[in-house]
Amino acid sequence: MENCLFCKFIQEHNQKVYEDELFYIIKDINPQAPLHYLAIPKTHFKYLTEMQESDIANLGKIFAKIGEISIDTLHLDGGYRLVINQGDNAGQTVPHLHIHILGGKEMGWNPA
Ligand code: 5GP
Ligand code: ZN
What is the pLDDT of residues 76-99, one digit of tens each? Predict the structure, then answer.
């Protein structure tokens, strides 16, 4: 998708923490926790409701991989939180679906 930051990053981002054929992980530029990553599928869609069958299957694999690499690669010992902002009320600013991965401290719970 032209003019999409997270599509551009597939080619251009040079500090990926993890990458495979389905998605990549980068550090968030404006971290909201000591460890704040973004897991970004390589196909462009903004909303869960726009997913093709392949996107649905891939998202399951992406979640499984995040779990698999959570300690060795992401250093999320002690636990972590996954967040997907959808639309304006949630504060979604980049219209390419991404999973926030937050950790590195004991977190509170006040998402609203
Ligand atoms: P959203 O608000 O759409 O759920 O999340 C977008 C996230 O992308 C924000 O947390 C924001 O800090 C992050 N972000 C925006 N631009 C950049 C960038 O150029 N590089 C990186 N690493 N993160 C970005
Ligand atoms: Zn995109």
Answer: 999 999 999 999 999 999 999 999
